[in-house]
Amino acid sequence: MKKNGFMRINALIVCFCLIFGNLFLNINKAWADDIDIKTEAYALYNTNNLNEALRLLENLPIEQKDEEVFVLIANIYEDKLDLSKAVENLNKAIIINPEYYKAYYNLGCIFLNKKAYELAEKNLLLAIKYNKEFAYSYYNLGTLYLRTGKYEKAKKNLIKAIYLKNDEKDFYINLAYAYKFLGKEKEAKKLLDIYNKAE
């Protein structure tokens, strides 16, 4: 009797392991497929095969679309010059993760290019709030302030961008413009000379 009871328990354990092991394998397979699709979409995007990358990403089930997927979809639409769909997908990314700095940064860049400076400033400041180490947010905010005549603010943000990433020529050029507009011609020339010697 004891042997039969022991065998039943073993049989139940084996069944339990088979059922949940299979379930676990299916979940892992779905997760791996999701990763493979994202990787393939990034590769297609980086080789400028926008339509195929977009097709892959848009065919993902909604539960597999995270904030990174929506930002990549937005980048594709931006490259295709469909800014309304780009903005729509960036907003979807923010709904999923309200602290996702890349979505705010991309929105800021879109609005900066459209000369919607208030919206650009708001989104770039949010990008900085959620990632204080991303140099390009400071650079684009500095660029915005250059365009709107706020040269002291431009200088401050461009210095921060250079502090975080000192190998971007455009950062130095825009900082030189800020110094020039602030009436500091010598500082502007000195800055460009230092950068040109470093190249």
Number of strands: 0
The proportion of residues forming helix, as a percent range, comes to over 70%
Please give the alpha-carbon distance between the first and last residues.
85 Å
| Low confidence ranges | 20-34
Largest sheet: none
Q: How large is the count of helical segments?
A: 10
Q: What would you report as the Rg, rounded to the nearest angstrom?
A: 25 Å
The overall pLDDT, averaged over residues, is: 85
The secondary-structure class comes to mainly alpha
Beta-strand fraction estimate: under 5%
Overall, the morphology is elongated
What is the H/E order? HHHHHHHHHH
Labels describing this entry:
199 residues; elongated; single chain; 10 helices; mainly alpha
Protein described:
The chain is mainly α. Helix 3 (67-79) packs parallel to helix 5. 81% of the residues lie in helices and 0% in strands. The chain is built from ten helices and no strands. The chain is elongated. Mean pLDDT is 85; it is low at 20-34. The chain has helices at 2-46, 50-58, 67-79, 83-96, 101-113, 117-130, 135-147, 151-164, 169-181, 185-198.
